[in-house]
Amino acid sequence: MDGKSDTFNIDKELDLRSQDEQTITERVQKALESVKKGNFMLVYVNRYEDISVVAKAAFAVKATVDNVLKKNENDWVVMVKNEVPVAQAG
Known about the structure:
By secondary structure, the chain is an alpha+beta fold. It is built from two helices and four strands. The radius of gyration is 13 Å and the shape is globular.
């Protein structure tokens, strides 16, 4: 570590545990409309396969998954950043 602290501007949190794929996709994409560019949204899911659902939904609206944190045995926090992915920039 370099001794610097990271700061994250979190605009929204979504609890999408036990939701179906379509609901997750719709809610992630709609919620990202209100997240300022460069800021984050936290999405809580409880199925490992839902992480990729969140990622695909985010990517479809030009956002990226910045990190995934395992909260406990059955819960993950997906950090979605509202930004144009580096591979698409320019």
